């Protein structure tokens, strides 16, 4: 709004001393940064690791450094921006700026400041201002760095860490939106010229540690007055949660692992797909068989928590606030004002986009995409791309159908991602249609559309790794390796997939526990491997992907602790192969399911054995398997084929006969000696599958008489103005003419 001039006004009034450059200062281009933002700010913005802009390099004392003398002690500030900046800005900015490694640059500048040479500037104390997550980089700074003030990931952090040279470094990351005040106390011994850490902490400003007198009479924070004015709208519930939707965990810190699939990012992606049906008819996307939502995991800055974090100012009884999710909490999840758009691409393009989640040699090595509930991806970790490190996308199913390379898909996401400004590349970025909506408002509208229905995750994985190869000379015994079967948060591991079973006809003949050890850098949490002999009496039918005409096949299913099927796959071998005498399987030694080495904490949601098989639908009028416009698009997790399925014991092959080659795509001659592919969970008859399980309708009313009114938001972008309308029990959408990027 107003190009963030209001934000700059507040920072100027705070008498901000110095800042590192962030990503959003470049939202409107390098010319805007140099000609408007830098002159408007009364404080220097530092970016020591960015070159290509004379104006930026001249900030402070030059070269990304600013020195301030405090009571005779010279304090040097070094600003650096994230190494991922080229992935987060437009192609025109990438062409103008060069980004060097942030930590290495900061260490080099710090060495200059403490080398005793006045010609390159000297400082007694060195503080690095890093637009990067504190936990991921802090221990890499050298002995010349005394403190680090970090940002970007919106995760609160305050610790004294050991640096690369065994030195103590005070590191603080004070949350976001000014919710906390990061405080670092250092001691400088003038005789020995040594710096030591006294303490580092984050103070919660909602407790009002920061008074007016602290800033010379400037009225900066008064949360009580702020809440009275603003929270009347922001505290309105938009949905009722029955459980948490969480970001990824690295096994130690929740919410920091963006290289793995999460229920939170998948929920946001599903809201994007729903948005395609909610657009004004004049701005509807072109007719397509498939509509897909995609959300970048690191766009999410908070979780969808069942435990209330909102302030209802006494309007809702304290014993009834848990489960209510507010407008303000949605904003915390998606705080950035990212515009939404859609783009028509091919199935091959979508496959290429998903494959870009793996980034061999980069840090991080994986950046996951949340996918809408109608998308299933099978990754073959054993088959690698030309580069030799990233796995191959074996198959993509959309709306229960194998996606061909030439099929048309309409993708909804942020315009940043669709125009290749978020580290992902898509063709035809100039064809992105921007109708003037913001991502967080789309998610708010989606949540509000459930009215009285309770939302719960299904714990079904959108992306799973499956590799099946013949076992030695035998063609009826195969070696199976599976990964990415589980989520990373301990709470969700309790409620998600716990074991894999094999089913022939209607008979379960093999089961193995899933290893739930968290993959801290990638998406493969939830692994299992075993040898499997296809029974002699297994169902037969036309081969789907194996190199044969007729195949025997069985179903592999991941199931939760109460036996509910979450993901299903078929494994097939040529029918003329020597059948096994009896159904059998052997497996490698596997540990019992274990989320982490530490005790599993209790879920923050109400205890649940899994999602309620009832699947409420946004708005109540369209079934979960219907696409935009209300036409049935056959959501693979909801709709099972009426013909024979693996669970009916008939021996018939699945009703569909996808002819995708092993790495997915369009029809081709099968080239694999054995076959594997995805199935709707309900196809096995083993459990209820749902697109995005949302629980039943037995929860507390969230609208109507006796309930707490839900809010809906509408947005219009025009002449630089955003109109936001909050209406109890309904919504108003302010339309805006189509904008083409």
Automatic annotation (TrEMBL):
GO terms for cellular component: outer membrane-bounded periplasmic space. Residues 579-706 are annotated as: Disordered. InterPro entries: 5'-Nucleotdase_C_sf, 5_nucleotidase/apyrase, Metallo-depent_PP-like. GO terms for molecular function: 5'-nucleotidase activity; UDP-sugar diphosphatase activity. The keyword Ribonucleoprotein does not apply. Residues 618-633 have a biased composition (Gly residues). GO terms for biological process: nucleotide catabolic process. Keywords: Membrane, Transmembrane, Transmembrane helix. Residues 591-609 have a biased composition (Low complexity). The chain crosses the membrane at residues 715-734. PANTHER family: 5'-NUCLEOTIDASE-RELATED, 5-NUCLEOTIDASE FAMILY PROTEIN. This is LPXTG-motif protein cell wall anchor domain protein. It comes from Actinomyces johnsonii F0510.
């Amino acid at each position: 709004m107003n190009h963030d001039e209001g934000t700059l006004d507040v920072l100027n009034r705070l008498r901000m001393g110095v800042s590192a450059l962030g990503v959003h200062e470049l939202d409107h281009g390098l010319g805007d940064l140099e000609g408007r933002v830098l002159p408007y700010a009364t404080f220097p913005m530092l970016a020591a690791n960015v070159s290509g802009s004379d104006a930026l390099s001249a900030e402070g004392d030059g070269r990304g450094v600013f020195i301030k003398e405090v009571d005779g002690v010279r304090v040097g500030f070094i600003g650096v921006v994230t190494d991922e900046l080229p992935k987060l800005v437009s192609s025109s900015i990438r062409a103008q700026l060069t980004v060097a490694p942030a930590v290495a640059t900061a260490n080099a500048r710090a060495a200059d400041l403490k080398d005793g040479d006045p010609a390159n500037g000297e400082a007694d104390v060195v503080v690095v201002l890093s637009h990067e997550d504190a936990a991921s980089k802090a221990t890499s700074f050298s002995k010349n760095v005394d403190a680090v003030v970090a940002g970007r990931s919106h995760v609160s952090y305050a610790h004294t860490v050991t640096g690369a040279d065994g030195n103590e470094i005070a590191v603080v990351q004070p949350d976001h939106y000014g919710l906390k005040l990061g405080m670092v106390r250092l001691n400088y011994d003038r005789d020995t010229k040594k710096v030591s850490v006294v303490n580092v902490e984050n103070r919660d400003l909602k407790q009002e540690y920061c008074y007016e007198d602290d800033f010379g009479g400037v009225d900066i924070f008064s949360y009580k007055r702020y809440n009275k004015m603003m929270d009347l709208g922001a505290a309105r519930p938009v949905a009722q949660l029955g459980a948490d939707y969480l970001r990824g965990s690295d096994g130690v810190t929740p919410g920091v692992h963006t290289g793995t699939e999460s229920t939170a990012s998948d929920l946001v992606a599903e809201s994007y797909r729903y948005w395609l049906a909610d657009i004004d008819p004049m701005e509807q996307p072109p007719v397509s068989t498939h509509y897909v939502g995609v959300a970048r995991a690191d766009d999410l800055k908070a979780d969808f928590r069942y435990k209330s974090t909102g302030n209802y100012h006494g309007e809702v009884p304290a014993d009834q606030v848990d489960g209510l999710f507010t407008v303000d909490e949605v904003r915390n999840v998606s705080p950035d004002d990212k515009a939404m758009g859609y783009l028509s691409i091919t199935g091959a393009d979508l496959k290429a986009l998903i494959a870009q989640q793996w980034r061999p040699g980069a840090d991080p090595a994986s950046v996951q995409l949340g996918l809408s509930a109608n998308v299933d991806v099978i990754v073959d970790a054993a088959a690698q791309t030309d580069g030799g490190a990233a796995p191959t996308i074996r198959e993509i199913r959309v709306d229960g159908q194998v996606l061909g390379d030439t099929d048309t898909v309409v993708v909804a996401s942020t315009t940043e991602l669709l125009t290749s400004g978020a580290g992902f590349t898509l063709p035809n970025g100039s064809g992105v249609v921007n109708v003037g909506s913001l991502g967080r408002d789309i998610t708010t509208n989606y949540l509000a559309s459930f009215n009285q229905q309770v939302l719960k995750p299904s714990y079904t994985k959108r992306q799973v790794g499956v590799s099946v190869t013949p076992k030695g000379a035998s063609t009826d015994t195969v070696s199976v390796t599976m990964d990415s079967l589980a989520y990373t948060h301990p709470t969700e591991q309790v409620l998600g997939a716990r074991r894999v079973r094999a089913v022939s006809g209607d008979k379960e003949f093999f089961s193995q526990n899933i290893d739930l050890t968290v993959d801290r850098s990638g998406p493969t949490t939830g692994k299992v491997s075993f040898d499997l002999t296809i029974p002699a009496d297994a169902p037969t039918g036309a081969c789907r992907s194996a190199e044969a005409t007729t195949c025997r096949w069985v179903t592999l299913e991941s199931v939760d602790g109460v036996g509910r099927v979450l993901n299903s796959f078929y494994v097939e071998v040529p029918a003329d192969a020597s059948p096994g005498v009896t159904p059998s399987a052997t497996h490698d030694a596997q540990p019992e399911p274990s989320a982490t080495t530490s005790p599993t904490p209790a879920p923050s949601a109400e205890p649940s054995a899994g999602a309620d098989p009832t699947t409420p639908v946004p708005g109540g009028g369209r079934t979960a398997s219907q696409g935009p416009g209300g036409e049935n698009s056959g959501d693979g997790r909801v709709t099972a084929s009426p013909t024979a399925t693996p669970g009916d014991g008939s021996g018939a092959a699945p009703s569909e006969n996808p002819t995708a080659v092993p790495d997915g795509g369009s029809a081709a001659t099968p080239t694999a000696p054995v076959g594997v592919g995805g199935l709707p969970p309900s196809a096995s008859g083993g459990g209820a599958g749902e697109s995005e399980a949302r629980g039943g309708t037995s929860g507390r009313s969230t609208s109507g008489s006796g309930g707490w009114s839900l809010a809906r938001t509408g947005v219009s972008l025009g002449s630089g103005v955003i109109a936001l309308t909050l209406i109890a029990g309904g919504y108003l959408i302010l339309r805006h003419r189509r904008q083409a990027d």
